[in-house]
Specification:
Blueprint lengths: L16 H9 L2 E2 L4 H6 L10 H20 L3 E5 L7 H13 L5 E6 L7 H4 L8 H7 L8 E2 L5 E4 L8 H5 L2 H13 L3 E6 L8 H5 L5 E7 L5 H10 L5 E7 L8 E2 L1
Parallel strand pairs: 1-4, 2-6, 2-7, 3-5, 3-6, 7-8
Antiparallel strand pairs: 8-9
Helix pairs in contact: 3-4
Bound molecules: adenosine-5'-diphosphate (ADP) and magnesium ion.
The site of adenosine-5'-diphosphate has 17 residues, from helix 4.
């Protein structure tokens, strides 16, 4: 994608219903400079780069599957670390928000290593864990990075008991509430790796589908097999071969 030799693919609870409604209309908004997005390999939505075209292709294929199945929530994970979960989640979410009838909420659930906000050069004082641990209102956490129909629920500090939070009643109710309130919203969750902690597994029952990211030349076959096996009771929507070398450029469904 944005470097010379790799390609993307080819490749609620506390707070009432009304609270959540207010949050989405009072979300803090600030324009992140394009130069910062480019530095983080985040697509800007309006450019004509190869990577934007590839993410749009991925978006269209995933959108179709989600529509056909009536799904609105998608979690992105991978067998191991640094295989491209966060970047894929962000660029997929931005591509989906470009569909005019669609808004997207991107949630950072890699609670041990939150990194979505950083990719927008943003260092929030409160993150999703503060909503869970200190009852900080969502309105103080959500932000819009200057892209239409796109909202981020970021993380900030790493927390230890993350899998307990991910499978807590408060978390389940938050997901259900976010799903029910808006018919034309997709929610994308950036999860930790499946094989490193039990977080992804603990959260997987609460999403409609899962997208697995593997890194071409790095993810081992047995790691992928193990990850798929661990997630077998979930709807694995597809596997994105990230940072693909030219000859392996394909998305597998
Ligand atoms: N398709 C890609 N092409 C080039 N670099 C990529 C690609 N996907 C991810 N990266 C880079 O790899 C690193 C890890 O990506 P990230 O999305 O943070 O991984 P993870 O969330 O799985 O830990 C980052 O520096 C990111 O910019
Ligand atoms: Mg990540």
């Amino acid at each position: 994608m944005t470097n010379s030799n790799s390609s993307v693919i080819s490749h609620l609870i506390p707070g009432s219903l009304s609270e959540l409604q207010i949050k989405y209309t009072q979300t803090e908004s600030f324009k992140v400079p394009h130069s910062e997005l480019i530095k983080s390999r985040v697509i800007t939505g309006n450019d004509k780069s190869v990577s934007t075209a590839e993410y749009k292709m991925l978006r269209t294929r995933i959108s179709r599957l989600m529509k056909v199945n009536g799904w609105s929530t998608l979690a992105v994970t991978s067998p191991g670390q640094s295989e491209g979960k966060t970047l894929t989640s962000i660029n997929l979410a931005i591509s989906m928000s470009m569909e005019v009838d669609q808004s997207v909420l991107l949630v950072d659930l890699d609670l041990k290593k939150p990194s979505i906000a950083k990719k927008f050069n943003c260092y929030p004082s409160a993150g999703i864990s503060d909503y869970f641990l200190s009852d900080v209102p969502l309105s103080d956490i959500l932000f819009n990075p200057g892209i239409e129909r796109f909202i981020i629920l970021p993380g900030n500090e790493r927390i230890v008991n993350s899998s307990e939070i991910l499978s807590s009643l408060k978390m389940i109710q938050l997901v259900e509430e976010m799903k029910m309130r808006y018919a034309r919203r997709r929610i994308i969750f950036d999860l930790p790796p499946v094989l490193i902690t039990d977080d992804a597994l603990a959260f997987s029952p609460y999403v409609d589908a899962i997208l697995l990211v593997v890194e071409d030349g790095k993810t081992k076959k047995n790691e992928l097999t193990k990850a798929v096996d661990l997630l077998k009771s979930s709807n694995i929507l597809g596997i994105v071969v990230n940072k693909a070398k030219a000859q392996n450029q394909e998305i597998y469904y």
